[in-house]
Amino acid sequence: MLTYTIRRLVLAVPTLLFISLVIFLLLELAPGDPMANVPLTVPPDVKEKMRIALGLGEPTHIRFGKWLWQFFVVEPMVLSDHILGTTLAEGQQRVLSWQFRSPVMDVIVQRMPQTLWVVGMSYVVGILIALPIGIYSAYRQYSVFDQVGTFITMVGYSVPPFFSGVLVIVIFSVHLGWLPSIYDTTLRVTSWDTFVMQFKQMIMPVMVLALQTTAQISRYMRASMLDNLGQDYVRTARAKGLGETTVVMVHVLRNSMIPVITVIALGVPQIFGGAIITEQIFKVNGLGQLLITAIQANDLPMVQTVTFMLAVLIVAFNIIADLLYAVLDPRIRYD
Amino acid sequence: MTDPAMPPPRSQWSEIWGQFKRHRGALIGGILFLLIIAIVFLGPLIWTLDATYIDIRARNQGPTWAHPFGTDQLGRDTLARMMAGGQTSIAVGLTAMALALALGGFMGVIAGYFRRLDGPLMRLTDLFLSLPLLPLLLVMVMLFRETLSATFGPETGIFFLIVVAIGATSWMPTARIVRADVLALKEREFVLAARSIGTTNFGMITRHILPNILSPIMVSATLGIANAIITESALSFLGLGFPPDFPTWGRLLNDATQYLQDYPERVFWPGLAISLTVLSVNYLGDGLRDALDPRTRIRGR
């Protein structure tokens, strides 16, 4: 198990290097010059210095190497300076954003909490709704609840978030006026009223994202429960006189959760990608919105860094899912 | 000697059709999908208003007999625009799906059939699966939009770009499924028999392997259409798809959200069209999977 973990972690390094190279080379093709907006009155030698300060004007492989160095060495140093009060990163150049003219990581850290709140909350809510639906519709297969539930999850699976999001805005903000359509990130929760405000503005983005999660996870949960309900050990458990609740909620559920948990782990990076659209609809200024504005403003270091961080998430959760699978299911041993 | 009540042996395809018919959701989904295609492609023959005709005096109208779905902020007829948009959206969906299937099928067959290529090709598939797809799609569209619309004209260029971008980022699941099926097929006796009479690799793949992996390919085809339509709409919705004056369902939805405060009902039609199409295709895929998989067959009574 330990050797397997180590092997996976070691294999992740070339994967991530390759992905960062692909993203870098793709962005290399981008037209446009970040210095185009600098006024003509700025003398050429100053312009040249600004260029170097932005890390431009050097061959591709050197800039790629520098980006790697800055991302993997300088940024962790800055982090340790922040937390431990060391001075490792003093005088080191960091990855600079072309549109904000400040370190990319500082902007990302500012935007992170909004995304994490909305995305994390919606994932938890989605799972909490999905599991009971999946369990009950498998237990009562082909009942009215199952038919309706399956249909609703199919609808949730098919309606894209950019329609469901806009639809709930039309219903709850425009017609009924119950909920705000724009997510106000400057709101600080200090009293009961601001808490209610925060709660209200989170309902719609969270529920829209949660609908996608619910649709996927409850389908998996149902299928996995159905697989297990027909097994011999279930009959044995019933035959020895266990109550129906114990049989379903302890014996069957524990075994059915194994594949579902890996699906849940694999879905985490996906929902970050889906948040790009949801953030755009509800005007949440989180990471997804940052990525869109960076793409539109041709801010290549920002695009590179955010996209790469998403790739890191995907690779990391792939490994986590595989390891969880082995931890939860004693029949699976990788060594 | 045979039992007179026994039905005559049926061909494989009529057997599958019989299974498919019993899956009510799949049947309704399939009919709905065909209906949407028919309306979108044949509708303009009946409803002859031009989707790009600007009638500024009739702008922002609600539903009337002249314009059953109303008009937009430039007085263009929404029904005509919905049909024109649907043509593009469905065309993108079908072409991107075909490209993803071709790529994924090729990768899967090669990886499953030639043992030496299996490792490298599957690592490549894993690499592609670890890429953050939506951000990369956005970046690709942003980067190549200008150059391609300069060479092929704005519409063909963007169509080409979006189809290739979606196809190149969605072939991986097909490749994995096809590879697994080919690996299992390769061990069967009929492959051994074909090899013993001297069938070449090319003949083996085209004559014996491909016809037998048709069912997983058909199922991923339906899922691929749904995926491609949603991705194209998402790109258009984020403003990085087709040019503004060129309607697709995602683009119409994006235009409608800008007038959300004044005309909230306008988002309804394009959103409904996307959702219904994807829903019908998903049901179709569900039914196909059940019909083609012998283990889940509902036995005739």
TrEMBL record, chain A:
SUPFAM superfamilies in UniProt: MetI-like (SSF161098)
Subcellular location: Cell membrane
Coiled coil: none
Record's keyword annotation contains Cell division: no
Membrane association type: Multi-pass membrane protein
Main localization (coarse): membrane
InterPro entries on file: BPD_transp_1_N, MetI-like, MetI-like_sf
Alphabetical GO biological process terms: transmembrane transport
One Pfam family per UniProt: BPD_transp_1_N
Domain of life assignment: Bacteria
Family from the record: Belongs to the binding-protein-dependent transport system permease family.
Protein name per the record: Nickel transport system permease protein NikB
Lineage start: Bacteria, Pseudomonadati, Pseudomonadota, Alphaproteobacteria, Rhodobacterales
Gene it is expressed from: nikB_1
UniProtKB/TrEMBL annotation, chain B:
GO CC field: plasma membrane
Localization terms from the record: Cell membrane
Domain ABC transmembrane type-1 span(s) in chain numbering: 86-285
Lineage: superkingdom: Bacteria
Biological process (GO), any one: transmembrane transport
Membrane topology: Multi-pass membrane protein
Xref: CDD domains: TM_PBP2
Keyword RNA-binding: no
Transmembrane region(s): 26-47, 90-114, 126-144, 156-178, 209-230, 267-285
Keywords tagged on the record: Cell membrane, Membrane, Transmembrane, Transmembrane helix, Transport
PANTHER family on file: ABC TRANSPORTER, OLIGOPEPTIDE TRANSPORT SYSTEM PERMEASE PROTEIN APPC
Family membership: Belongs to the binding-protein-dependent transport system permease family.
Name of the protein described by the UniProt record: Glutathione transport system permease protein GsiD
Organism the protein comes from: Roseovarius litorisediminis
